[in-house]
Amino acid sequence: MPNVSVERIERDLFELSRFGFNETNKGVYRQSFTEADMAARRWLMELFEKEGLTPRMDGAGNVIGRYGSMDKPVVMAGSHIDSVPAGGIFDGALGVISGLECVRTIRDNNIQLDYPIEIVGTSEEEGRFGGMLGSQALTGNITLAWLENAKDENGIFLKDAMADHGLDYHGVMHAYHDRNKLKAFLELHVEQGPVLEAEKKTIGVVDGISGVFKWIVRLIGKADHAGTAPMNMRSDAFLGLADFAHQIQRIIDEEGTEKSRITIGHVELKPGFPHTVPGEVDFTIVGRDLDEDVMKGLANACRRVLSTIARKHRLMFEYEEMSWLEPKYCSSNIVNMIEQKTKSRDYSYIRMPSGAGHDCQFFTEITETGLIFVPSVGGVSHAPDEWTHWIDIERGSNVLLDCLIDLATD
């Protein structure tokens, strides 16, 4: 059976990592619709064309390379190429570059296909503006009202960020991929967690993807002098945040499951001066679970606890729900195929859920969908020291290759 060239994957991943690379901390800064992100998209289009794929960029900023001219439903593979601030070189990018390498391997081995293959580098997966714009647009999971109001944590509107790069946000609504012209969607991704490494397994056959909700929360008290304001007379917004942080485990114990997660990932104190009692704190809450009813229970509990804490500390409590992504389950046919292809290559594996959201979760609504994990060293992701061993990348890419060939031939 054919094998991918991991050397070509390595070369392309390091080439892609140049866009937004920070020499000081060795992290990748390629947030969606920044100069680095758009330069990477132009580079990807050129690479697709060089390798014999027909490239295009749709109205949502997705870069798509098509291999095969037959007028039949497409087998699509890929992931995203935007990053979090100070991210690693594998998250998202691996799925795009490995998909391209699978097409090169098919081409080099003169494998005849009955269906075309498209490799996609989606836009805005990391949620700078609160969603997964590229995959939501491709699957028809977007509204004009959301596009007009979506903004990042600095108050920059999505429509303005797109306009800075010559993109009209109305074009997002034209990116929908007709479900009747899509045969399947596959994504290869680093696990971003410690399970595969701990279990000493090479492949994660993913059967479900956690839902995610994201809030921006504001606790408003009163800024005061840190020396003259008595402790029992303060309206200290930070104490409200600290109290809530201590309640997270109790909320999960009472309302969640072993798969539940609640995270405070970003905090801003105002006015943010050492000698001033914080009069306001803005922070994010991200909650996850594989059951949407559990997610609702977690969200309701967060709201109740924050209201109680606000009263205790004489604070006002406000929040805005930035996004709500329901849990999704992969196609049993594709899950079984991934498992069978993994077995046929004698790679070790486990079936597992994904605690992180991925592009493929939206494709589950319109086509047969599968997700393949490879191990993350130390479980690290979204950080400069994110790493996956090349042998694991090679094996995961070979499984992706076998599935793509199977899906694209009668």
Automatic annotation (TrEMBL):
This is Zn-dependent hydrolase. Pfam families: Peptidase_M20. Coiled coil: none annotated. Keywords: Hydrolase. Gene3D superfamilies: 3.30.70.360, Zn peptidases. InterPro entries: Amidase_Cbmase (IPR010158), Bact_exopeptidase_dim_dom (IPR036264), Peptidase_M20 (IPR002933). The keyword Hydrolase applies. GO terms for molecular function: hydrolase activity. Belongs to the peptidase M20 family.
